[in-house]
Write a structure and sequence with these properties.
about 0% strand; about 300 residues; mainly alpha
Amino acid sequence: MDNQNAIMPEESGGDKKAAKKAAKQAKREEKARKREEKLRQKLTKAGASPEEIEKAVANSGDYEEEGGSRLAVFFVTLVIVVIWLAILALLIKMDVGGFGSTVMRPLLKDVPYLNRILPEETENPLGAAGTENSEAPYATLDDAVARIKELEVELQNAKNAAQDSQNQMEGLKEQSAQLEQYKANEAAFEERRQKFDEEVVFSDQAPDINEYRTFYEGIEPANAEAIYKQVIEQQQEDEELEQYISMYSNMKPKQAAAIFDTMTNDLNLVAKILKAMDADASASILGAMNADTAAKLTKIMEPSES
């Protein structure tokens, strides 16, 4: 009997919970019934057919269930979005692949609160110029313009140095050409000297060596040197004059006249060239020259009275 009396309070408590649950269910059913009744009245006033009314009443219950499922989906989506935002914030904070410092910092550095997720800035050891990963190499626009001007000056200096090197190279080439010409002239002179020795000095018809000795002993050393220099200079002058004559003879008269008009400081040389040229060629050149210059040359070329 005692055991049965002990179990009774527990069973009475379970009956109360069931009764409360049944009452709540009854209230919900009553509310649903009243809601359906109101919907029926509203649709009836609107002129809906009985089939449409029944279909609308049936869908109202589904709508409530669907609304609850939509709310659940919304909360699940919200949780997923929050998780992804947290992951993104973590990636930015840890600066994975430089995403936080290079991509997000320019966008969020001035946004309150959001800029807290940015990674901490590290001091640039290279100074204001920065590196390729720095976000602002120069503090102001004036600094950037000044740096551009410095680079322009450096570029111009480099160009000038390159031009100087080019000029120096051209000068070396010209000196090399002159040296080659000097070598060629020296070889030609040596060839002529050997030919002179073979044909004149040491030939079978050459004077006796004692006659050479007597001749050179009779000339003072200073005079012999002066005569030798004069002979060499005259020989070189004659060769140059022959080259000038050949060159200007192959030119058109107008071209030669234009060049001679500029040689007013050396009209004696021009006169020698014209005088040694063919008479028709020199006359054509004089006719194409400036009248004053041609007159001066004619006076220089005038044969001296015997």
